[in-house]
Input
Amino acid sequence: MGESAGETRIFLSTLRPGRRERQLALGAVAVSVVVFATLAPFAKIHLPIVWAFVPIYQSALAVCDLLTAALFIGQYHILFSRPLLILAGGYLLSACMAIAHTLSFPGLFSPTGLLGAGPQTTAWLYMMWHAAFPLTVIAYARARPIAECARPAAPWRHGVICIFAAVSAACVMTAVATVGHPWLPPLMRGSHEAGAIGLVVSIVWLINFAALVILIARRARTILDLWLIVVLCAWVLDIALSAVLNHARFDLGFYAGRIYGLIASSFVLVAMTFDNIQLYARVVQALGRERAERQLVQHRTMELNEAKALLEQRVQARTAALAASNRDLLREVTERQRAQAALLLSQKELREVAAISSSAREQEMRRISRELHDELAQTLATLRIETDRLREATASAPDSAVSEARLAAMRTLLDDAVASTRRIASDLRPLVLDDLGLVAAVQWLVQTFTQRTGVSCELTLDPPDIELDEPYATATFRMLQESLTNVSRHARASHVDVSLARAHDRVVLRVCDDGVGFDPARPRKSGSFGLAGLRERAYLVDGELIIRSSPGQGTTIEVRIPLQAAQERALS
Output
């Protein structure tokens, strides 16, 4: 359907009846029954013949049915409900049969009626008419509910088919009653009932009653169903008065039955008229609300446009301010980048100066060590030999005992001087590092540490023949020397693990002790430069120094030297 369920529940054919609608319909049925009960005993009383009553009544009836059919066709084009189209066809068929019935009425326009009518044509048209309409009501009640109807491809075609079918059915029934008049059983003898009218009336009345029962038993009942029930009740009473209880045309039953038929055809028309009035009222209210909402939208749109213009101005001002801020920020960033580049260049130069200074210091220490070892130590050794020779030469002298004692003391002093000279030379620059390489120097350093401090020290080399180029071999040796010196001075350790390993892209030196440990977050003591020296040496070779320690948990010093940086620095 074109509308949702909420939008279509505003028509009589879709709304469920409420208490008010039920009471109104019940009241109409009750009034009809009371009037019927009042008139039934007098149905056979003959009244004056009023020929104008028939065309007036039939014209009003035809107009009511045509208007009702038009309203149903209009609602079909909104709801696309086939049951509404069936009802439209039924009311259109009723209007056509009313016209045919009027034209064929004997004595009204001609003695026997128009359309080639015979004495029984009018009676048979009345019976066909009053049987055909309830049959369309039964078809309406058995048709698919509105909610299940889908929009057809061309709704106007169905309207045309409905009109054609209703008119065609009316023409067929009129032809049967006129052309087939000789073969139809007689229902009237003059103006009085006769023949098989009782059987035919009973069948027609049962058809109307069956339609009434089907409508009452329908579950999904709407307000339209309620008023169709009222219409069928009036039709049942119409047939009872004008064809069962009466005796002839123009008696009380004849007039009362025709009035019942007119009222019955007016019920749905009046209900749908009021329904349309309510719909128009809703449309007017909706248009009023839409006009008010449109004015409100226009007002809000004007406010929004003003706010938009103000916002655009603010955005422009803010954009200009941001552009100025961006220029200032760009200038500041450029200056910072320039300062950072200058700082990096300064750091690089400082590192190069520190490296040159360290290399010069190491070379000077190597020279002093060589001189101490090769000259002073050799001189002292030669002096000790000469002292031994002097002691041997003075052994036969009278005061040889005194001279030997002095010479022994001098020799002891010379031995101490030689040992001190060699120790100083070794501390300044161990010749084993230059002569035998890093592995031998590290082994000698660990062994010397154990002999000097009495602390067990375990060395691990991976691979065993690991070697580094200068100045990284010296830096590694010095960092190990400084770490072991810190252990001997501060750690009070009983065991030290030293490991030197080479991976694919770095060398890792690790020194672990089980000493007292310390808190790395605490500031260093005044005059303590051990860790600062380690950081400086690691910085010179682009290394990374990691210190892990806590009070009572020992200390781990780990140095990671990237080989790629070392090779690049060596090449540069």
Observations:
- Confidence is low (pLDDT under 50) at residues 1-8.
